[in-house]
Amino acid sequence: MDVHVPAAITRGLLLRGVDVLTAQVDGTTALEDPALLDRATALGRVLFSQDDDLLAEATLRSVPGSRLPESSDHNGVWAWALSERLAGRLDGHPGS
Q1: Is residue 70 left, alpha or beta, with left meaning phi > 0 and alpha meaning psi from -120 to 50?
Q2: CA distance 77 to 92
Q3: In angstroms, rounded to a whole number, what is the distance separating the alpha carbons of residues 52 and 2?
Q4: Residue 78 near residue 47 (C-beta atoms within 8 A)
Q5: What DSSP character marks residue 57?
Q6: CA–CA separation, 47 vs 28, rounded Å?
Q7: Residue 16 resides in a domain
Q8: What count of other Cβ atoms lies within 10 Å of the Cβ of residue 32?
Q9: In this predicted model, what pLDDT tens digit does every residue of 5-39 receive, in sequence order?
Q10: Global pTM?
Q11: Cα separation values, 38 from 29, 81, 86, 87, 90, Å
Q12: Which of 6, 11, 36, 41 has the highest count of CB atoms within 10 angstroms of its CB?
């Protein structure tokens, strides 16, 4: 999980038994987007984020013939737009 993911999302996934590794737990909160994608790839993980810059980097890596070599591919990035109400429900609290 990227540092931009609300804690309610992480808690909701953990409560449902999803194997989640946050940037905070991994000690990678200060990594720039390219390094964060490289770290997720090295761990064989998909990165979950709503950070536009990170999504742009991931998209660039996915385009054949981009400025990046084939070896800079990644496992994927999940992106979302989420209301606070839904985030509360995922955390086990009813939405308002």
Answers
A1: alpha
A2: 25
A3: 12
A4: yes
A5: H
A6: 13
A7: yes
A8: 11
A9: 888 889 998 999 989 999 999 999 999 988 888 88
A10: 0.67
A11: 14, 24, 30, 28, 29
A12: 36
- Give phi and psi for 78, each to the nearest 5: -100, 130
Domain extent for 76: 7-90
Could you give the CA distance from residue 24 to residue 86 in angstroms, rounded to a whole number?
23
Is 42 within the bounds of a domain? yes
Q: Residue 95 falls within a domain, yes or no? A: no
Tally the domains of the chain: 1
Q: Tokens 């808690």 appear where?
A: 11
In a domain, 53, yes or no: yes
Helix (H, G, I), strand (E, B) or coil at 78: strand
**pLDDT tens digits along 32-80:** 988 888 888 888 888 888 788 888 888 787 766 655 544 455 566 666 5
